[in-house]
Design a protein that fits this description.
Helix content is 72%, strand content 0%. It is mainly alpha-helical and 166 residues long.
């Protein structure tokens, strides 16, 4: 089977496809950072859900938790695909989040919800960095832009609404 080499011109950048893109260590590390962040989010939601009594709030928080668990699984798979052994705990970041959420729980639901909102806002920033990372493949960026970012923004709006009801 004869293959022809790919050619690019000076004016046209080469388009990376599934066949021409090579996994980079940096892409794997970037996705693994998101694994740790998402694990931290799962831990934070689990911790705060224990304190919530309101059924509508509890249902919404459980849905957010489910989304974060799904993100953990997605980015573990992506990290593996891109030559990085994914973390299975939140590491130091999780300890910081745990302390922050724990102290917020002492001050009531509003403070606990505010800590979740701040975590979601931090997540938006981390995902934006991933989208801007040239080492990350286009299909991952599309998933983040089309699926994850809108969900995070919706979470932030929902948490705001819950805080106003407190």
């Amino acid at each position: 089977m004869k293959t022809t080499p790919q050619t690019t011109t000076k004016n046209k950048p080469q388009v990376l496809t599934q066949q021409t893109w090579t996994p980079s260590e940096e892409a794997g590390k970037a996705m693994n950072r998101l694994v740790r962040g998402e694990i931290s989010a799962v831990e934070a939601y689990e911790s705060i859900i224990e304190k919530i009594d309101s059924k509508p709030e509890l249902e919404r928080l459980n849905e957010m938790l489910k989304n974060h668990r799904s993100n953990v699984n997605y980015f573990k798979k992506m990290a593996l695909k891109h030559n990085e052994l994914p973390d299975y705990d939140s590491g130091v970041w999780g300890t910081v989040v745990s302390l922050f959420v724990g102290s917020a729980k002492l001050f009531g639901n509003t403070a606990a919800l505010k800590s979740l909102k701040e975590g979601e806002e931090h997540g938006v920033k981390e995902y934006q960095k991933l989208i801007e990372n040239d080492d990350v493949p286009r299909h991952v960026k599309s998933h983040v832009r089309d699926e994850i970012m809108p969900t995070l923004r919706m979470n932030i709006n929902s948490i705001d609404a819950m805080m106003k009801m407190q």
